[in-house]
Design goal:
The protein is mainly α and 391 residues long. It is built from 15 helices and six strands. Helices cover 65% and strands 4% of the residues. The chain has a two-stranded parallel ribbon. The protein has a two-stranded antiparallel ribbon with strand order 2-3.
């Protein structure tokens, strides 16, 4: 998260995950029927290991490791959670930590965008390329602005990573409060925090993240099979109202939304064109170039897109895309067999990411950690009775 810290912190996170995996699987007290999931995962590990060796030779081991970590290593979290029991205490702690982390991220984003701390924060994170003789600051990432307006990124590397993270956290907060999975003496506070996070999400101007947020909520309502139409309409109206209020608070929101829907916003149009070029490229080159070949920080990178679908296809071939989708399908099948409310939420998260896999980079950090954690929680054995009072 700061200059030079990625390698250090990532190393210790991976060590912690391995320790948890060993501890939770050394003495399994109950049998979990995920043998088929393990088989798919083992095949993914073997398959991607081949492309890791290829990529490490051409693009460097550190670049190849990034993809291997995000796509192959982190799903090991799924095999930690099924051996644990979820209770009220765990849910409350997890909810509080998630809410606090997103709030802190949003507060930093507010200081960055509205109080002139961007240069300080980006400099701390090592994202300043150079400072011109006239004082102009040049960053090593080009998407911190859109149509001349500042995009909120908080402590994330890019506004898109920030938006994806805030979308996932906001959907978790909404779900837990709406289903009364967590309850506070003064529920108005977490609801106000939820609204704050949504406004931060909007100021990231990551439209894919906002769609992701809405899709998770709609899918959870569909899976609840209770007042589906009523709740979906309520979500849609509330979303439009929040967007309207955001346009009143920040004029740039209105301009960017208008340009997006009219097709005059350059990044939206370019993403569509880039996706088409990527499909053509993948059809012409279906076998993969090795892990790290889509790292656009390299001079010899092959292709890069904001689509995880295209990036994985370019790095490890069409087979890798099929394997990932099969893996997600099997995870969703196991989640649907669970009876808890959180399993329904996790299922909605998996389905949403399987869809957004096509047009968003869902393997960015730290979002991908949070994604696998939320997915794994849905596989935990619950000591919480399913909520029957939800309407």
């Amino acid at each position: 998260m700061y200059n030079g810290g990625d390698g250090i912190f990532s190393f210790w996170k991976e060590i912690a995950i391995l320790i948890l995996f060993i501890r939770t699987n050394s003495n399994i007290s109950r049998k979990i029927s995920y043998n088929h999931l393990i088989q798919i995962y083992v095949f993914i590990v073997i398959y991607f290991s081949i492309f890791f060796i290829i990529g490490a030779e051409i693009y460097g081991a550190s670049m190849a490791f990034r993809t291997f970590r995000n796509v192959v290593f982190l799903p090991i979290l799924l095999f930690i959670f099924p051996n644990l029991v979820i209770d009220k205490s765990f849910v409350n702690k997890f909810f509080f930590v998630s809410m606090f982390s997103a709030t802190l991220m949003g507060v930093v984003g507010i200081f960055e965008c509205h109080f002139g701390y961007r240069e300080l924060i980006r400099g701390y994170m090592g994202q300043i390329e150079e400072i011109g003789s006239d004082g102009t600051v040049y960053y090593n990432t080009t998407n911190l602005k859109i149509m001349g307006f500042e995009r909120m990124a908080g402590l994330m590397g890019t506004p898109n990573q920030f938006g994806n993270y805030m979308a996932l956290t906001a959907s978790l907060i909404y779900f837990c409060l709406k289903r009364k999975i967590v309850e506070y003496k003064h529920n108005i506070v977490p609801w106000l925090i939820f609204i704050f996070i949504i406004f931060c999400l909007i100021e990231s101007f990551c439209r894919t993240a906002f769609v992701m947020f809405l899709l998770i909520l709609i899918l959870t309502e569909y899976k609840s099979k209770k007042n589906i139409l009523k709740n979906v309409i309520a979500i849609s109206i509330a979303s439009l109202l929040i967007l309207y209020v955001a346009t009143l608070i920040n004029d740039s929101v209105n301009e960017i939304l208008s340009a997006t829907f009219s097709g005059n916003e350059a990044s939206s149009a370019d993403r569509g064109n880039n996706f088409k070029r990527g499909i053509d490229f993948l059809i012409a080159n279906p076998f993969g170039y090795g892990l790290g070949s889509t790292e656009n920080s390299l001079k010899n990178y092959v292709f890069f897109s904001e689509s995880a679908f295209l990036n994985i296809g370019v790095e490890a071939g069409v087979v890798a895309v099929i394997l990932f989708l099969c893996f997600c399908k099997k995870i969703n099948f196991l989640l649907c067999k669970q009876s808890g409310e959180l399993s329904r939420f996790s299922s909605a998260v998996v389905l949403t990411n399987s869809i957004c896999f096509l047009f968003a980079n869902i393997f960015s950090t730290p979002y991908i950690y949070f994604f696998w954690i939320l997915t794994g929680i849905g596989l935990m054995k619950s000591s919480i009775e399913p909520c029957s009072s939800y309407k």
